[in-house]
Design a protein that fits this description.
With about 375 residues, the chain is α/β, with parallel strands linked by helices. The chain has helices at about 20, 25-40, 45-65, 80-90, 105-120, 135-145, 170-180, 200, 250-255, 265-270, 270-280, 280-295, 295-305, 330-340, 365-380, and strands at about 15, 75, 100, 125, 150-155, 180-185, 205-210, 220-225, 320-325, 345, 345-350, 355-360. It has two domains: about 1-15 and about 280-380, Alpha-Beta Complex (Aspartate Aminotransferase, domain 1), CATH 3.90.1150; about 30-270, Aspartate Aminotransferase, domain 2. It contains 15 helices and twelve strands. The chain has a seven-stranded mixed sheet with strand order 2-8-7-6-5-3-4, sandwiched between helices.
């Protein structure tokens, strides 16, 4: 996959094993981004009130086809946190209600739900999920053991951040519907890493990033809300879309797409990102990356005296893999790997456990993981790791 390096602007002196955090733009996508921004600056009024709005609608329709949902049920947002905050702030919580989640969620989202649950006198239930995960059946049993008659909604990651695990959200959405619960899915890492069919998934709310594995510029994500649930979703920012003088056919779009003056150029590059992936047969690329990620998992677990956190299969893993690691200084380890070995890789702490998470993207090669292995071996010899 070495030939894909020419398509990216990443520093060639850095071994980049952290695509999962923010993604990176291919050159053709970034060039389109710059052209769009130039158009904005050349005629900002025309762009913001007319040409850009038309392009925004076209980009939204292209994205909706990619994730398979109706284009009127999807709006662009700057990041998944913005989308989840929109939902959490609007969600009709009463005193004593519970939001059922897992112990594997992204920290910023935990804080978001805790904040709004505390305000309402509700509870955010982080159901403990034991690691390693044994199988899907065991995971579902553990998760649903947190359900009570006070549970009002499910909040769950499709792919977790710190641990890089694919969770069985399809099964959870089915059971949640049977129980009459609202389903809210954090799919930040999903689009372009694994196939996403929002209509088939049948979640009530789905939030995801376009600037991660889809490789659009930073600040490009989306919020999907099923039509029958849109009535309770308020915008975080009230602007011209509320009681619009020129209302569209959808108040959901009016309320959430018009958020005051902002540079929405990143949103408009999404069709180019999709075109780039189509041109390069990206699902085959993703499959090759997943194979590399899984193939090397045992190697690094043995190197770090760790047990795999899940079965090493595509059911639970895609292009991310997290290795449990013992270190008294996670941040220091991250800094040493970057400054001394020129390796960009996150060292995450969750629930008292530390994980070294590598991401495999098109430009990564086995030699990148060899460099990581060599760095770990040297740090172990120095007594600075375990």
């Amino acid at each position: 996959m070495n030939h894909y390096k020419k398509h990216f602007l990443l520093d060639p002196d850095i071994t980049f094993l952290n695509f999962g955090s923010f993604g990176a733009c291919p050159k053709p996508v970034f060039e389109v981004y710059q052209k769009i921004q130039m158009s904005l600056e050349r005629e900002p009024v025309r762009f913001i009130v007319h040409d850009g709005i038309q392009a925004l609608e076209a980009a939204r329709k292209e994205l909706s086809k990619y994730v398979n949902c109706h284009s009127d049920d999807l709006v662009f947002v700057t990041n998944p946190s913005y989308g989840i905050n929109t939902i959490a702030k609007s969600f009709p919580l009463n005193k004593g209600d519970e939001i059922l989640s897992t112990s594997l969620e992204y920290g910023a989202m935990d804080r978001t739900w805790e904040y709004y649950c505390n305000r309402a006198g509700a509870s955010y239930v982080k159901q403990e999920i034991a690691l390693p995960i044994k199988d899907k059946k065991t995971f579902l049993e553990q998760f649903w053991s947190g359900y009570t008659n006070k549970t009002k909604a499910i909040f769950i990651s499709h792919i977790t951040s710190a641990t890089g695990l694919i969770l069985p959200v399809e099964d959870i959405c089915v059971e949640a519907k049977r129980l009459g619960l609202i389903t809210i899915v954090d799919g930040a890492h999903v689009p372009a890493q694994i196939p996403l069919d929002i209509t088939a998934l049948n979640a009530d709310v789905y939030v995801a990033a376009c600037h991660k594995w889809m490789m659009a510029p930073k600040g490009s994500s989306f919020l999907y809300v099923k039509k029958e649930q849109q009535h309770w979703v308020d915008p975080l920012l009230i602007s011209w879309g509320y009681r619009s003088d020129t209302p569209s056919h959808s108040s959901f779009l009016d309320y959430h797409q018009t958020n005051g003056t902002r540079d929405f150029s990143a949103f408009l590059t999404v069709p180019e990102a999709i075109s780039f992936m189509r041109e390069h047969n990206w699902w085959q690329v993703a499959s090759d990356c997943r194979d590399m990620a899984i193939k090397n998992a045992t190697r690094f677990c043995e190197l770090l005296n760790s047990e795999p956190i899940c079965p090493l299969t595509p059911e639970f893993l895609a292009q991310l893999y997290s290795i449990p690691i013992q270190t008294s200084d996670p941040m220091g380890l991250h800094q040493r790997l970057f400054h001394e070995y020129k390796i960009e890789i996150p060292v995450a702490v969750q629930n008292g456990r530390t994980f070294l998470r590598y991401s495999i993207q098109a430009f990564n090669t086995p030699s990148d993981l060899d460099r990581l292995e060599q760095a770990i071996l040297e740090l172990k010899k120095q007594g600075n790791l375990l």
